[in-house]
Amino acid sequence: MEVVDYIVVGSGCTGAMAAQTLVEAGVQVLMLDGGATDSKYAGKIPDKDYLTIKRDEPDQYEYFIGKDFEGIPFGQVKTGEHLTPPRKFMLNYVREWMPMKSDNFFPLESLALGGLGNGWGLGCCIFSGDELRAAGLNAAEMQGAYQVVGNRIGISGSKDDAEPYTAASLNDLMPSLRMDSTGANLYQNYQRKKSGLNRMGFYMGRPSLALQTVDRNGRKAYQYKDLDFYCDQDKSAYRPSFTIDELRNKPNFRYIGGVVVLKFGEDDGLVTVTCRSIETKEILTYQCRKLLLAASCLSTARIVLRSYSAYEVRLPVISNPYSYLPALQPYLLGKDADAHKVGFAQLSLFYDPDGSNMNVAMGSIYSYRSLMAFHILKETPLGIKTGFRFLEYMMPAFTIVGLFHPERGSAQKFLALHKDPRRLTGDELRVNYTLSEEEDRRVNHNEREYSKALRSMNCFVMKKINPGQGSGIHYAGTLPFSDSNERFHLLRNGKLGNTQNIFVADGSGFNYLPAKGLTFSLMANAHRVALNALTAG
Amino acid sequence: MNELSLSRQEMNCYCRYLLGKAADERSLQLFEGAIQHEATILSDDEIILLEFMIRNPWSIGSIDACMGLFFHNHRLRKRMTIAFAILETNPMYFDFFRPRVFGPTYFLNLSVSAVKELFMALTGRIILLFF
């Protein structure tokens, strides 16, 4: 059997960054991946803006509500139901190959090429020194890694009040994207009330986004087509599949999609990786000198537990509590809607009451249009016809605040793998995730403070929606960083405890999850772990 | 009425109610496909209510308002939402759905609509007592 230098498991944001670091170092890399792609809608969406498509395209229902109407949530809305039809491929094979059971935790997982990165909101934040230490990371190592990853993916942003919390301190930042009227009006109100808001602990600014606003590296500047939830036509928004596509042109990189990694074993300095083909169900094995797991922390936990036949062993898990606050800016009611709306976050509102840049809550502020009226209409207490009359009047004023809360582990947040011979993997992951009363109180307190702060900016929260634990799509902490070389822990360099050549490049090691956008830090950590894997032993 | 012709009449009924015009052939076909989902299949009682709505289009506004306020997850509301989604993604009806600018008095119109909606919802509640 051929032995490669490195196997990287997973092609999401962390897998892509780790693989790029290894390939650039000149070693042989094999990537094993679920590899699901969009065969249904790829290339179907015309190169036009949202309103032009709405006016001209007879087949628009295919990608807006789905050929099989999968864009219309018929029943109870679960995590992932909000994905638009062209993004639904992210969920392909997940139910069969990543079985999960829980009464109180509803995560989003993916076996797609590019993983959850296909739906990433692009927010890039740099964790403060205290946050990095609490997560178990080395601040100095991470600072360099942030810059490397920033250069690779291209970041736009602004130096403003939010700079300490975003990635605006990085070099070579592109200008922020243009705000639409929803963002611009709120930002103007913030500037007017700034001193009072700062006293309350609120700081608003333009988010740093992995979104190009100038043409660079073969990717185009953002074109304001308002199709951000549907496609990546001009490649202005970073997706990990772009990195994988580039790596596939390199002689020292090989990609194998359509497989699910089941387990690994170490013997005589070599690592054997066992997979199963998604299509044929055939068992396949590959060998390498070092293995980097970057399958996302829930899948990595499955692989590690299965490799040790550690069934019913509990591992911790952390996920940021998430809520969203639909709000209205009355000044914009009935006003002329912008021709060019923006689907990505336009503003970030950070809540840092003691000014320590630790335990900060983060609100991302969005306007609403291209997800269409019917999604909101079904939630209103009005009939469909009258509801639409209200909605079209309210639409320019409609503001959505997505709110993340910082999170730590506890004994009530755990997962375990249970044997289940009916499953293709032979097992099923079971998760319990319960917040303590104190944690619940903290989340409620943050929501109340955000409502107050927004009200002072003439933006009125209509409702608080808590979609359930796991819906924030930030997961970590299953194999916590530790200084001792123990099983089910990671050493600080990312090596899995009690192994010789197994590294973990996703967020499994993080002992603490700041509320700030996690993905950029995961990518920086993946780069750091790949560098450590190159130099270790 | 057989199920097929009933669903076409249903879509037509929604389209006339929502947009004031008959549905085009494509929207009718799409609606027939979309309502095959398990969560939208009607019970016998709901079919009787639907037939009543089709025969008495004056009642739809009241039943719609009533379902919005009291029966949020009613299957007929789900089916009307599907009809709305199909119409919203049909360029033939773009003018109805395009963003508009509203005058300062529109808020008053909406306030009147809200009061009317409440009255309609109560009327709808009375109608639904018979089903």
Write structural notes for this entry:
The complex is a heterodimer of chains A (537) and B (131). Chain A has 537 residues and is an alpha+beta fold. Chain A has helices spanning 13-24, 50-56, 60-66, 94-97, 129-135, 139-153, 181-200, 240-247, 297-307, 373-377, 384-394, 437-456, 519-535, and strands spanning 3-9, 29-32, 100-101, 202-205, 253-256, 259-267, 270-277, 283-293, 315-316, 318-319, 322-328, 347-351, 361-367, 398-404, 407-408, 413-419, 427-433, 460-461, 475-476, 502-504, 512-513. In chain A, the strands form 5 sheets. In chain A, strands 1, 2, 5, 6, 7, 8 and 20 form a 7-stranded mixed β-sheet that branches. In chain A, a hairpin with a 2-residue loop joins strand 6 and strand 7. With 131 residues, chain B is mostly helical. Chain B is built from 7 helices and no strands. Chain B has helices at residues 3-19, 25-34, 44-55, 60-69, 75-88, 94-97, 106-128. Classes of the chains: A alpha+beta (537), B mainly alpha (131). At the A-B interface, helix 2, helix 3, helix 10 and helix 11 of A face helix 2, helix 4, helix 5 and helix 7 of B.
Please outline the major beta sheet of chain A. 7 strands, mixed
Helix content of chain A: 25-40%
Task: Sketch the topology of chain B as an H/E string, one letter per element.
Answer: HHHHHHH
Low-confidence stretches of chain A: none
Overall 3D form of chain B: globular
Output the radius of gyration of chain B: 15 Å
Based on secondary structure, the structural category of chain A is: alpha+beta
Low-confidence stretches of chain B: none
Hey, which two chains have the biggest interface? Answer: A-B, 41 and 48 residues
